[in-house]
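[Meeting: bench + compute handoff]

Bench side (C.D.) handed over the final construct sequence. Compute side (W.E.) agreed to return the predicted structure before the next meeting so the bench team could plan truncations. Sequence as handed over:
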Amino acid sequence: MLTTSHQKTACFRLPEVLLLSLSHFIHDVYSSFLAPLLPLLIEKLSMSLFQAGLLTTVMQIPALMNPYIGMLADRISLRYFVIMAPMMTAIPMSLIGVAPVYGVVALLLFAAGISVAVFHVPAPVMIARLAGPRKGLGMSLFMTGGELARATGPLVAVGAVSLWGLDGFYPIMVVGVATTGLLFWRLRNAEVAFHNQESRISLTNTWRQTRHLLRPLAAILIARGFMHGSIAAFLPTFIKAQSGNLWLAGASLTLFELSGVGGVLAAGALSDRFGRRRLLLIALLGGPLSVWAFVLGGSWIRVVGLICAGIFLLSTTPVMLALVQEHAGDSPAAANGMFMMISFMARSAIVVVVGMMADRIGLKNTYLFSGAVGLLGIPFIMKLPENGR
């Protein structure tokens, strides 16, 4: 069982880190149900495409509350946030198939969005404490669970609906409920995060303490976001237009995501050894070169370029999360909430901009431009503090 002793949480607690990574995987499998089930929901409820697209926005709106969720998590024991989240996400996401009207679907997704935010804000804080001095490795293992879920979740949703139908797949929620039970058994007595009940640090003060870190990270997120957003959102469209092969288009996105799993798994541990700034510099140099190789190269070069793009573009998140926790001061969850809100806002805006660019200049030129924007993030890496300073 975990201990309340700071000295004992200073070592790397591999079993607990792996448990949180597993819970991240199961949690995010449920949160990825909407996209693959959306065509069936459109047919069942006679939704317009605007209404269908609005559902994704409804689920993401709670991300704007991330800083406030973090501030609350800093003031009370955050373990229950993480323990309850798999169940609280699994239940509404498993019920969207039985929802009788559009409004009920939107309400279920909004509830799931709150649970998603409640999980993702404090969980990295727990990982940071459980990982001790090897925060990068801890974040890599944790984020690997999320990346695998992104590739697995749609398959789980489609398989469940194939077996039980859209109206009958709700029993799948039992896995999320069981995960909450397992987390409660293992973490119910855990005290693995700093709680500032006495100081009551405000979000304004948290920003003042961390703006030296969050400002350059925001610039890096934007620079990287053009490359990541253009590939994640439009890669199948680009491949389909180039090859006319829909299967190849889908397989290319899977290859990109699976390559990212390898990058996520390795980057954090490497940053523990060689430094966070150095790993981010490698990623922002390798990312644009990989995207350009994918767009301009021949057949086999394209495959290598896509694999390398997945490795470089998706590997930055655990490194950034480790940086945030190292410099969060007395408000680790609130600082993480601010970082995640910035990431959400940047990602949402960039996808819209990339889509507008693609309409005007084409996807190929958009990819080339996105690679150039990625290089603009390099100067901001030099503004980041060194590990632990």
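W.E. noted at the follow-up: The CA atoms of residues 58 and 183 lie 28 Å apart. C.D. will use this when planning the next construct.
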